[in-house]
Amino acid sequence: MAGSFLAYEEPSSNRPDPGPIIVGIIYGMPLADILLEIWQETFLAIGYIGLILIIFEGGLTSRMDLLKQNFFLSMLAAATGVLFPIGLSYLLLYLGFGYGAVETFIIGAALSTTSLGTTFAVIGGASKDIDLSQTRVGTVLVSAAVIDDVSGLVMSSVIHDLGSISGGGDVNLGWLIGRPILASFLMAALTPLICKYIVAPLFRRYIEHHFARFDHLSNVVLMVLILCAFISIAAYAGTSVLFGAFLAGSFLTYLPSKHPEGPFVVYSREHGEQNDDKSPTFVHTFEKYFSDVQKYLMEPLFFASIGFAIPFIDLWTGTAIWHGIVVVGVWIPLWDILTKPKVDGPSSSLSEVLPSAGLLGFAMVARGEIGLLIVEIGYNSTPYVSDAGFHTAVWAILLNTIIGPMVVGLLIKFRGKAIGNGHWGIQSGENNGGHEKSQPEHDQALEEGQVPMQ
């Protein structure tokens, strides 16, 4: 049974497969508890590595020039995705069902975060009709999801220490909230500066011409070193490890020189492999050596780990179903879609904008691992979240994580070409939408200093 879910075929659209989540529920502690606890912890660790690789690939392939151009809209989308679910939770749970104020805040915080893993799985598994990573709406989605991840880290830290505060513990709330925000801002600001003025000039002058001799081997070594360095710095500084992985991918895209004679300026992976003075790009190396194991092993284990954390049997009570599905599970994504900033422009008609707006809204609906983490912290570490509140939150998170990406898959399947060719689709003059031919143009935008400010 596990094989039928985990060893899935190449998807025809960009829907993340819900099969691994079902496998996690069945084989993990929530239902049959077939796997030993040590095996569940092992799969959880492997799945988290897969999550880091998903985010790292997103950084490698993201359009940095578009991230900068649409930074304000990304901030608006992220703020909307955080504030409105919390506000709606207070309207429904606090005023409607009599939940406690702090309990409602914890549930609303869990429902306000965007799953980075699901977001990048949506982007990385897009159909052949559209490369979401090269579109304006995809770029807004990426940056808004990264910002939401940082806000989710802040809220999880605050909620974790609510137990200490309620017990009279001495907690510096200002530093607790400010540390991840300050660390994230400094990493986002210093990374492009250090790369552009220190690391990139040294790499281009003394190192990159040696890469043509070793091709993928030298790329793999550098990618592992940079990724480990960034996630270590992020963890030590107190910000999100996933944010560090995204910055590591963005960092690597800027390192190589951009002139036509540069070893990394190639038209395809074969061009870099077959010419003695050329080297495949970092994206080519990732696709050749990491993409398959990530897609068919680590990514399914990541989604299965979400299933490990779902208390499946306890969800099937009348109150939990009513509150979790009919009320919160339905209204949170609908309200999120209706209030999401419309990706409109002066030259766009309503029919052209709606598919892109729907894609942005539904893709940010998935809560996934971060939402479950927040509500579990509130449930296990504080006295505020009741059993009913926990089950309500889990129902809503589960529905959002499954339904949101599935709707995105349908949107891209039927309206993918319209999105890609529209005002918020693939932008001409900057990138042609393919990793092979467009990499030099993509890097040229970075050369001109167009880097994201997270």
TrEMBL record:
Transmembrane segments: 38-59, 71-93, 105-126, 138-160, 180-199, 220-248, 301-332, 353-374, 394-412
A Pfam family: Na_H_Exchanger
Gene Ontology MF annotations: antiporter activity
Domain Cation/H+ exchanger transmembrane: 20-410
Locations listed in the record: Membrane
Keyword Transmembrane helix included in the entry's annotation: yes
Keyword field contains tRNA processing: no
Alphabetical UniProt keywords: Antiport, Ion transport, Membrane, Transmembrane, Transmembrane helix, Transport
Annotated region described as Disordered, given as residue ranges: 425-454
Topology within the bilayer: Multi-pass membrane protein
Skewed-composition ranges (Basic and acidic residues): 433-445
Gene Ontology BP, a term: proton transmembrane transport
GO cellular component: membrane
Protein name: Cation/H+ exchanger transmembrane domain-containing protein
